C-alpha cells in the first residue's frame, strides 16, 4: 500500500510539472506578444547613438547615430567637448556619421538631437602616451587598439547592410550578401555581433542600436530562409527525431535538398545558437516557424544537419554540400562541426551518435601528416586537394570527438604551424585565393582560430612574434592574428572605413562583409558563442570567499555557461585582482569542454583581502569574489595542532553530511555550507608537507 | 524548449515504472523504460551526471554471488572524490564485499575512508590520490567510469531493491560539489519469482499508453523521404 501511495504521489507531481510547463509556455507566449506589441508601438520616432566606445587622442574617431524621423528634420551632433556641435540635418538618417578628434583624455558624453528627441552615448578617450604600463608600446594601448578595431569593424558592418537606407527603420529583416548565400553571410555577421555581446533577450523588445536593428532583424532574415524537410528516414540507431518526434527538420533550401543546403544550414545554426535567447518566440505570419521559440527552431535545424550526415560511402560520418552525400567535403565538415559545437554550447541536444559517426569516419579525411582532405579519399597517407585553409578543421574535428592530445593532434598542430608564414607548409596547397595563405586569408584564419582556441594551444614556434607587451608569451599565435587585424583594418577613422579590404576569404568566395564578419569573430573573446551575461555576472567566478594563510596560493575558477547551464568552451577569460594586497595580479585562460578555466596566484602582499574579478572581452564582467590572507589561520587544521594532517581529514570525514555551523566552520573548508567529501578533498590538497 | 522540458520527465517515468510492480505490465513497463533509457531521449534529458547501478536488474539463486557496478556517466568535470550510501534488503541478500575505484581512475594512492557495510546499508567515501591534477583525472575518468564494484550473496527468495542515496560527487579540487547529480537504482531478484501482483490504476494505464505511443512514433519511418 505504501508503494502505491508513493507512485501516486510521483504521478501527481509529474502531472503538476507538466501542467506547469504548459503554464510557462502560455506565459512565455503572452510575454512574447507583449514584446511584439511594445516593438510595434515603438515604431514612432526614435533617435539612437552608437554603443559606448573607446578612442585615442591621437586619431579621429567616427561618431555616429540614427533617427527615424522624417529625412531633413533638424539635427545636431554634440561631441561633448568644447568644439561646436555638428549640424547633421542633411545627413542620411540611417547613418549620421562624422569623424572627430578629441584633444584631451577623458570621458565624453555625445548627444544627438533630432527635432525634440535626444540620444546620448559615451566615448572614453585615452592619451596613449599616458598609459602607465609602457605608454604607446604597452599592453593597455594595444588592448585599446583592439577594442577600437572591433567597434569600427562592427560599424562597417552596419553601413554594409544590403539596402540599409531603404530598409531603415521599417523592414523587419536585414541581410548581407557576398557569397551568393545571403542566409549564411547574414548568420555569420549576426554571430559576430552576438559574440561581442550585442545580444537580444528573449521576449524583451531590444533597445540598443545593434541589438534592435542588426541582431533581431538579422535573425529574422536567417529564420525566414529556413524551410521544412522530412527527416524521418535514418539508419538504425541514428534517430534525428528524438527531440521532436514529428521528424520535421529545418534547412536553408531544405525542401528541395538544394546543392548547398547542408553548407548553408550549418552556418545558419551559428547565429541561432549565438543568440542566447532560446526562449524568444519567432513571429512570421504564415511560416512554419511562426510562434516557435528560437530553441525549437535551433533544434529542428540541428536535427536536419545530423540527419544529413553521410550514412554511406567513403565519406560516411562526414558531411557534403547537400544532405546525405557519400563523399565528405572538408569545408562542409568544418561548418557542420562548428554548428554542432555552437549548438551544444547553447544547450541544444546534439545526439551522441552523430559524434560517434564522425569519429569513425575521420580517418578517411584526416591525414597522417595533419592535413584534411577536400573530398575524403579513405586513405590517411594521401592528401586529397589539401591546403592550409582546412588544417584547422582537423583540430576542430578532434576536439569534437574529445581527442585533445596525442599523435593526431600533434600532426595537425604541426601542419597549422608549417603554414604560419603563408607559404611552403605541410601537404602543399591546392586552392590559392589569398595572397598570403594564412594571415589575410579569412577562411584559413577562422579555422585556425577555432581549432587552436578550442585545443587550448597558445603558442606555435613559427609565429615568430616576440613576447609582450604585458604577459603575452613569445610566439603567441592569437596575439599575432590580433596584431595583423588591427594593422590591416581599412581606414577605421573614416565614415566609410572599418572593413578589411585587403583580406580574401578563400578560393571560392569573397566579400568585404564576409571578411569583416570573420575578422570580428576572430577578435571576439569566444571561439564558439558568448556565454549568458546574467549568469556570468552573478555566478561566473568562484569561490565567493575564502581565507588562507599568507604566502600561500589561491585558485579562482571562472565558469562560462549558456542560459540553460550548458558549458561554453573556447571562451577567453581575463582575471584580475582589483584591490587588496595583491592588486593588479592578472592572468588569462580559455575555457575547456566543461566551460571552466582557473587562475592561480600566490600571495606576496601579506595580510589583507583581495577582490578578484573575471572579464570576457570589453563588455562582460563576472561577480566579484574575495580572498582573505591571514597570519593566524591554517585552513583545514580542525584538530588545531598547527598543521594539516590525515587526522584532520578523518575528523572532517566524521562530520560527513552535516551542515556547516556558520561561515567560518573549519570543517566546511570549501565554505559551501556543507561538510562532505569535497571538504576532505579540499584539505587533502592542503596537507602540510612532512 | 517545451519539447525538451517534456523529455526531462522521462527519468521520472523510469522511476515511476521502477516503483510500480505490476504482474503482466511489469515486464512491458520495464522494457519500455529500458528502451527509453537506451534511446537518445533519455540521453538528452540528463544533462547532469548520473550515478547508476549496473546491471539495473538481475536474478540469482540462493547461495549464488551477484556483482553490481556503481557507475557515473555524463561527467564534464573530473571527480576528486565521491561518497554515497547503498541500501539493500538483508532479508534476501547478504554482503560479500566491495571495491572502490576498480579501474584506478582516482590514481594509484587514493584515500579510502569508507565505513563499509552496516546492516542493510553500505557507505562509501573515497578521495583521489593527492598527486592527481585536474588534467590527469580528466584524462583517466573521461565522461563515465565505475566508482565501485559491490558483491552480494543470495540468502533467501525475494526481491531486494538496491537504492542509492546521499550521493555526493566532489570536483577535482574539492572547491565544489557537482550539482544536479541524478541517481538510478537497481534490484536483485533471488529465486526468480519477484513480481508483485497489483491492479494497474487508470492513471498509470494512461501513462503507459502515452509512452508506448511515443515509442511507436520514434520507430516510424515515413516512406516518402530518403537520405
List keywords for this structure.
heterodimer; A: 690 residues; alpha+beta; Immunoglobulin-like; six-stranded mixed β-sheet; five-stranded mixed β-sheet; globular; disordered N terminus; B: 227 residues; 2 domains; seven-stranded mixed β-sheet; 6 helices; 12 strands; disordered C terminus
Chart the SSEs and their pairings.
The complex is a heterodimer of chains A (690) and B (227).
Chain A: H1 2-41, E1 47-49, E2 53-56, E3 61-67, E4 75-78, E5 86-87, E6 96-100, E7 106-114, E8 117-126, H2 139-159, H3 164-167, H4 182-195, H5 209-224, E9 226-230, E10 248-252, H6 261-274, H7 294-307, H8 330-346, H9 352-361, H10 388-400, H11 407-418, H12 442-455, H13 477-487, H14 512-523, H15 533-539, E11 541-542, E12 545-549, E13 553-559, E14 572-579, E15 586-590, E16 596-602, E17 608-616, E18 620-621, E19 625-630, H16 646-654, H17 677-684
Parallel strand pairs in A: 2-8, 12-19
Antiparallel strand pairs in A: 1-3, 3-6, 4-5, 4-7, 7-8, 9-10, 11-13, 13-16, 14-15, 14-17, 17-18, 17-19
Chain B: H1 2-7, H2 10-19, H3 25-38, H4 40-45, E1 50-54, E2 57-60, E3 65-73, E4 79-87, E5 93-100, E6 111-112, E7 116-118, E8 121-127, H5 134-141, E9 145-154, E10 158-171, E11 182-184, E12 186-190, H6 202-219
Parallel strand pairs in B: 1-11, 2-12
Antiparallel strand pairs in B: 1-3, 3-9, 4-8, 4-10, 5-9, 6-8, 7-8, 10-12
Helix pairs in contact in B: 2-3, 3-6
